[in-house]
Amino acid sequence: MVGFRSERGVVSALRSLQGDCDMQRFKALVASKGAAAGPELAWKELGEADLMDGDVLVRVSHSTINYKDGLALTGKAPVIRRWPMIPGIDFAGTVVSSTHGSFKAGDAVILNGWGCGETHLGAYAQMARVKGDWLVPKPGAFTAAETMAIGTAGYTAMLCVLALERNGLTPDKGPIVVTGAAGGVGSVAIALLAKLGYQVIASTGRAGERDYLMRLGASEIVDRAELAAPARPLGKERWAGGIDAVGSHTLANVLSMVRYGGAVAACGLAQGMDLATSVAPFILRGVTLAGVDSVMAPKAVRVEAWNRLARDLDKAKLHAMTVTRPIEDVVALAPEILAGKVRGRVVLEI
Hints:
Elements lengths: L1 H23 E8 L7 E8 L8 E9 L2 H8 L15 E9 L9 E5 L14 E4 L4 E3 L6 H23 L9 E3 L5 H12 L4 E5 L5 H7 L3 E4 L1 H4 L10 E6 L3 H9 L1 E9 L13 H5 L3 E4 L7 H14 L2 H6 L1 E5 L3 H9 L6 E5 L1
Parallel strand pairs: 8-9, 8-11, 9-10, 11-12, 12-13, 14-15
Antiparallel strand pairs: 1-2, 3-4, 3-6, 3-15, 4-5, 5-7
């Protein structure tokens, strides 16, 4: 009996050792600096020694593709600032090892931003080593896949809702316009606002997505062409506030039509980084423009956002806006998300 226990212990140790060896090698999408056409992308086998410094090692199970990821993968904007780079700005996974006081092996975690996929090796890999301060415990209400169905786009949408609430917007103040409505931020924003009792006006250039947006909770659809041209200093007061992921003339038009005392949360630049507007909405109507940053938001804000998502996001609507694809599809998806051909959210299984 003693010999049996000893043999079993040796087998167990060998299995543990084999697991450690397996853990040291993993697949990752590596972006190398290429020509003007964009980065060179290749799937490679790496080891843990190839990862950057951090106090938590995570086995990644899911990621997603955001507009920013599309820019990085295609080279349409200088998102990547360290070469070579593993792209991907967000992930969900399980802690393998940790020297950080808040996390231990086996913990389910999520990460959004903090320079991952830009200056720190990112999410499109089976393993990631990051700072524990960047991680948020996965809310129990969600599976890992659901957290990436939300992803940085949905987490940003929640930050925008929080910004509107901090500026006094409540459902009784009037409708909220959401631009880029069929995209990731827009889709989650509509679902959240509708669940909270707001009347939602969805702005989109995709006429075929009308039924989709109405099912998410929009009560009115506005053609994006109405907001895409240069704005007047002030327009007719149409909404109490807005969530804008588009920027440029669209944001200027949204601001010009906000009711007295309203607010707009701005988080994106799909149309452009410029903002040709005037001070009129701010000094004549008391409008607030609230900038929303998801990358470097303090941990307390992140935890609040994820807790509110767990409470306020209709999971049936989340599933309705989500498709699941293998991680290998991410390269092909990049130009599609920039062209506005990706509806809602995409979960990438790693």
